[in-house]
């Protein structure tokens, strides 16, 4: 059990740092776009903004799944990356299908990745929610008023 924690916790830390990078990039992009919208933006631009934020956060989650999959490959749990990535995605998204399981030696990495994944999806959801709420607030403020924070 301790060897699972010794291997899994550093990977979780790397994922947390990566998520922080993706959130910072999303926020920088959003703030730059927001300053540019002082003159008003179209609905298409709002959709593009929200799409970019969503895609960036999802990409961040996918990168983290790939990192876990690479760990599983290094540990010799899977013979090919596609299977390792599938298993990682099932863990990260907390689906828990159970159709592919790891050896008893490394099996506790699954729940560690699930804990990591649910936390990261929560962060991604909060970033997306903040962006959507800001767009709604801006539109409710009406023309000529800055509804953003």
UniProtKB/TrEMBL annotation:
Potassium channel domain mapped to chain residues: 66-132
Keyword Ribosomal protein: no
Gene3D superfamilies attached to this UniProt entry: 1.10.287.70
Residue stretches spanning the membrane: 6-27, 47-71
Keyword Lipoprotein in annotation: yes
Protein keywords: Lipoprotein, Membrane, Transmembrane, Transmembrane helix
UniProt xrefs under SUPFAM superfamilies: Voltage-gated potassium channels
Pfam families: Ion_trans_2 (PF07885)
Protein name according to UniProt: Ion channel
Organism field: Cupriavidus neocaledonicus
Organism lineage string: Bacteria, Pseudomonadati, Pseudomonadota, Betaproteobacteria, Burkholderiales
């Amino acid at each position: 059990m301790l060897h699972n924690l010794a291997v899994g916790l550093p990977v979780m830390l790397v994922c947390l740092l990566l998520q922080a990078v993706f959130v910072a990039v999303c926020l920088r992009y959003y703030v730059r776009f927001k300053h540019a919208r002082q003159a008003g933006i179209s609905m298409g631009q709002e959709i593009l903004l929200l799409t970019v934020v969503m895609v960036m956060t999802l990409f961040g989650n996918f990168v983290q799944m790939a990192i876990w999959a690479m760990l599983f490959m290094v540990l010799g749990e899977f013979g090919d990356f596609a299977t390792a990535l599938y298993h990682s995605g099932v863990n990260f998204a907390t689906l828990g299908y159970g159709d592919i399981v790891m050896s008893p030696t490394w099996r506790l990495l699954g729940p560690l990745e699930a804990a990591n994944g649910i936390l990261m999806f929560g962060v991604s959801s909060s970033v997306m929610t903040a962006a959507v709420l800001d767009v709604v607030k801006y539109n409710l403020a009406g023309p000529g008023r800055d509804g953003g924070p």
